[in-house]
Amino acid sequence: MRDKDYGLENRQYVIGGVALFIVIVYIIRLFTLQIMSDDYKKNADSNAFLKKIEFPARGAISDRHGSLLVYNQNSYDIMVVMNEEKGRLDTTEFCNSLGITKEYFIKRMDEIKDRNKNPGYSRFTQQLFMTQLSEKEFSVFQEKMYRFPGFYVQRRSIRQYVYPYAAHVLGDVGEVSEGNIEDDPYYQPGDYIGKLGVEKYYEKELRGEKGVQIFLRDAHGRIQGSYMHGKYDSRPVPGKDLTLGIDIKLQALGERLLEGKIGSIVAIEPSTGEVLAMVSSPTYDPRWVVGRKRGKVHMMLSRNPWKPLLNRSIMGQYPPGSTFKTSQGLTFLTEGIITPSTAFPCHHGFYCKGLHVGCHGHASPLSIVPAIGTSCNAFFCWGLYYMLGNRRKYKDVEQAMNTWRDYMVSMGFGYKLGIDLPGEKRGLIPNASYYDNAYHGSWNGLTVISISIGQGEVNLTPLQIANLGATIANRGYFYTPHVVKKVKGEPLDAKYRERHYTKANRRAYDIIVAGMRKSALDGTCKMLSRYNFEPCGKTGTAQNRGHDHSVFMGFAPMNNPKIAIVVYVENGGWGADYGVPIGGLMMEQYINGKLSPDSERRAAEFQHRRISYGEANR
Predict the structure, then answer these.
(1) What pLDDT shows up at residue 521?
(2) 14-18, 504-508, 606-610: which has the minimum mean pLDDT?
(3) Residue 207 has pLDDT above 90, yes or no
(4) How far apart are CA 493 and CA 206, in angstroms?
(5) What distance lies between CA 394 and its chain's CA centroid?
(6) What φ, ψ does residue 446 adopt, rounded to 5°?
(7) Which of 84, 96, 308, 535 could form a disulfide with 556 if both were Cys (CB 3.0 to 4.6 A apart)?
(8) What is the CB neighbour count within 10 angstroms for residue 347?
(9) How much is the pLDDT for 88?
(10) Average pLDDT for residues 349-366, to the nearest whole number?
(11) Adjacent-strand bridge partners of 74
């Protein structure tokens, strides 16, 4: 009997323990729901209050002369509170007022309630039903809105682009993704965000800060007025206006000149690093990607085999061709591999130990200034050959190669320059390890000789080549290129005001400038001799699997330069075929403010000149 009582007593303890455990679980759960979680508070607040978001005006964008490029236009979003709609809607009349089908209405309402597609869904809060109604569409809907319980109008704005130019620079604005919402609590479903270009890079400056109006509701959800006379309301703060370094007239000319061609033009003001023009061809009209049609147009552009969405100015990675010879001359002069009077032979090319690199006919032997002027391949091949083989200065070829690499990096090659646009690529500058891996440690100057003339493994973006021109114009330093000249109410970021000096010395730059001036007077850029503003230039003919690329890099005037520029035309042939004449017209437009009648005729000719590209070149 005593054993039986003992078992009963044990069972009592077990049952009591289970009951106590359940009570504790319930207490913890109640504490979590009521104290730690704000779900119930949110639902209660949603019943009592209606919070109406007021969206700020997005900052406007202007060019360097104050011409308006991007502004805002009113649009309207249709919002719905599901708890107020409750199936009381005359669906047919509602759909007719918005010009939509009943099927679309049902589909959209289901999407709003789907927490996988709309994770922030609550039946008590406003949900986005339809975006970007125009003034005309809104006026039709507004007349009948009182008949549609649970539906509200929220005033917004959409971007408008004044000109059909500079799409890659300006970018566009689109609806936020789930990733945007996760990354930044500022955004809610249906908000807009910069997707490309300046609109994306300067999103936080452009977007401003949202405001809010809080309204009190009764038990039936009807609005009773402003809560506490607006004490807790906040006004939206407009976004900051941007002034670009872009000259829209120069940009327009560049886009005209590259019609029917694949390539890029980048122009920089050497004294500031401001980008004066950035053309990528083919391009598109930024006015196409606004409003509700943006998604379809963007999809069409993304599927275009000619890749009009690709900003080749900062994403294209190309062999720089003979424009690169200027960087080689600077290196050889500063390192003491050559002097201004050092002359190398050129008998239609570089010949050494059975290796031949061809060259066109010109005087021989020749020194550095005429070598730049005539774009002699042999001269720069000899220079690299003697640098990489110099055992009195460098202990081995690896040390010589890495010294060469250090000069190239100091000139802005091999790494991103840091322009204020998304998507910049770094290009490629090889070093000793690169070639050790490629040739299993067995290589020398002849193995890599093609890099001396901007071929082989060397790849640069057009922006980097333009920056080379700006660095030579400045005789040894550059500013990080940037497209935004000023953010209203803010100083320019310090990184765009810092001078970056290269490893080459001032004397070397003076000699290279003399060579580029000679090229413009009677060398490969001699068609520039018609201009009276003392242009300096260097052609490039970059070898390619198909037809060669036409390249030009230059600046003007020679002293106190105002513009540095690169023109890169894929499959355009010799540098003098497309690069030089286009570059000359761009420099004339910027320096003189317009083209002469003769230059306008030549611009029209190049505008209508097309290059045939095969499938392999797309």
Answers:
(1) 98
(2) 14-18
(3) yes
(4) 16
(5) 40
(6) -70, -30
(7) 535
(8) 11
(9) 75
(10) 93
(11) 157
CA distance 310 to 316: 8
Helix axes 506-522, 325-335, angle to 10 degrees: 140
- Cα Rg of the chain (Å, integer): 33
User: Whole-angstrom distance between the N-terminal and C-terminal Cα of the chain?
Assistant: 96
| Structure tokens belonging to residue 404 | 């060469």
Residue 585 corresponds to which tokens in the numbers above?
Answer: 């017209």
Which residues touch 171 (CB under 8 Å, ≥6 apart)? 194, 195, 196, 197, 198, 199, 200, 201
Contact 550, 318 (CB under 8 A): no
91 contacts 137 by C-beta, under 8 angstroms:
no
Would you state the structure tokens that stand for residue 458, as one six-digit string? 């060397």
- Angle formed at CA 85 by CA 80 and CA 90, multiple of 5 degrees: 105
SS3 214: strand
Amino acid (1-letter code) at residue 200: K
Contact 162, 69 (CB under 8 A): yes
Q: What is the 3-state secondary structure (H, E, C) of 541-570?
A: EECCCCCCEEEEEEEECCCCCCEEEEEEEC
What distance in Å separates the CA atoms of residue 327 and residue 472, rounded to the nearest whole number?
9
Contact call for residues 564 and 554 (beta carbons, < 8 A): yes
Backbone angles phi, psi at 375, to 5 degrees: 60, 55
Rounded Cα distance, 156 and 152, in Å: 13
User: For the stretch 116-147, what's the b/e string if a residue is b when 16 or more beta carbons lie within 10 angstroms of its beta carbon?
Assistant: eebeebbbbbbbbbbbbbeeebbeebeeeeee
Q: How confident is the model at residue 30 (pLDDT cuts 50, 70, 90)?
A: low
pLDDT score for 68: 98
User: In the prediction, which pLDDT does 41 show?
Assistant: 46
The H-or-E segment that residue 275 falls in is strand 275-281
